Amino acid sequence: MIEKEEIEYEKSVLIGIITQHQDEEKSNEYLDELEFLTYTAGGEVLKRFTQKLDTPNPKTFIGTGKMEDVRQFVEENDIGSAIFDDELSPAQQKNIEKILKCKVVDRTYLILDIFAQRAQTSYARTQVELAQYEYLLPRLTGLWTHLERQRGGIGMRGPGETEIETDRRIVRDKIKLLKDKLKIIDKQMSVQRGNRGQLVRVSLVGYTNVGKSTLMNVISKSDVFAENKLFATLDTTVRKVVIKNLPFLLTDTVGFIRKLPTQLVESFKSTLDEVRESDLVLHIVDISHPNFEEHIASVNQILDEIGASDKPTVMVFNKIDAYEPEEIEEDDLMTERTPAHYTLEEWERTWMNRIGDNALFISAINKENIEDFRKKVYEEVRQIHITRFPYNNFLYPEYDEFTGEIKDDE
Ligand SMILES: Nc1nc2c(ncn2[C@@H]2O[C@H](COP(=O)(O)OP(=O)(O)OP(=O)(O)O)[C@@H](O)[C@H]2O)c(=O)[nH]1
Ligand SMILES: [Mg+2]
């Protein structure tokens, strides 16, 4: 069901709204992220449309006048998909499609589509397929049926055209089948996790594209796929890492994102079990991203949802090489200083100071402060080890006391 072949960049427009809770600046930042998602899915954004609205129009999400602007642009520029930053109701989606006569994709579907495109293993593919069917189920009546355009491109890598006329029952059966299939794999995975013995488990979590896989590669000398697109990693990778003489398991996981579709959280539950069952969480943050504080909040919320928010956590602020505060010219007396103007040193004195030792500032790419990072991880893992196996204490001296041969990895 999931097609793998590469597609040409598809012309798209983005549509977002500005509300009381979401001012123009926020809305722009969200659309930046949506544009990155669109690019990752294989689309090119020709134009953004925004509208000030207190509540979205129940029929067409944005107002009639604005929709007419969009329609004209879509027609004149041969646009393949109109992408909304918010979740659309099945009815809204249908209505808008009738007007625009192109694919209408919301943020949730876009993310599902990227996952479908990127899923490598049969396990990840099954999880995505399940999430796609669950998204599709309430939308079954007439989704995209009136479209006579070519197939393929954004939003077409899932259960699409062929299933549309199919009975809901068939989709429900399919959902049940996929759930059963996942249950079997889940059991195997859980046994595998059990077999890993008593090694301390550490997981890398964080917003998508913050550098988790890059850090994994640096620290474990492994070769996990990393790239500057969203959701480069869908399957968890577990590596045995040895710092000095202390072995532990390090897991690289799928990145999180604002408004991660609930269908995905649900079907990736067991991928996330890896995080839930870990002893230590390394929360990686891209400090060079203007929205990094909001990213932290999104990640914490998802950790909470999966029941993993009470783990010992180290905050790792990555990409310090790329961090550039906004500057205020000396003769500029109008611009107010905001956190966007903070230097790294100033950041370190904010709330980050309160987490004290549990905040690290690194560059995975330039290997800056990686030694501090290794030391910190060593000490945390050692602490967990000693608590769990008090008699083994003598095996693992303080990081600086260790004089034996330094082994990086096995
Ligand atoms: N400037 C800079 N870029 C970095 C650093 N670490 C990683 N990157 C880049 O950030 C991008 C994303 O890196 P990944 O390691 O794939 O990020 P990830 O968190 O695993 O992403 P997902 O798997 O998509 O969630 C890549 O282009 C990396 O080269 C860093 O310290 N500095
Ligand atoms: Mg990754």
TrEMBL record:
InterPro entries: G_HFLX_dom, GTP-bd, GTP-bd_M, GTPase_HflX, GTPase_HflX_N, GTPase_HflX_N_sf, P-loop_NTPase
Compartments, record wording: Cytoplasm
Primary role: GTPase that associates with the 50S ribosomal subunit and may have a role during protein synthesis or ribosome biogenesis.
Domain of life: Bacteria
Protein name as catalogued: GTPase HflX
Any Pfam family: GTP-bdg_N
Molecular function GO terms recorded: GTP binding; GTPase activity; metal ion binding; ribosome binding
Annotated residues for binding of GTP: 206-213, 231-235, 252-255, 318-321
PANTHER family reported in the protein's UniProt record: GTP-BINDING PROTEIN 6-RELATED, GTP-BINDING PROTEIN HFLX
Binding site residues for Mg(2+): S213, T233
Similarity comment: family membership: Belongs to the TRAFAC class OBG-HflX-like GTPase superfamily. HflX GTPase family.
Keyword line: Cytoplasm, GTP-binding, Magnesium, Metal-binding, Nucleotide-binding
Subunit text: Monomer. Associates with the 50S ribosomal subunit.
Claim: Chaperone is one of the keywords in the record: no
Cofactor(s) it depends on: Mg(2+)
GO cellular component: cytoplasm
Gene: hflX
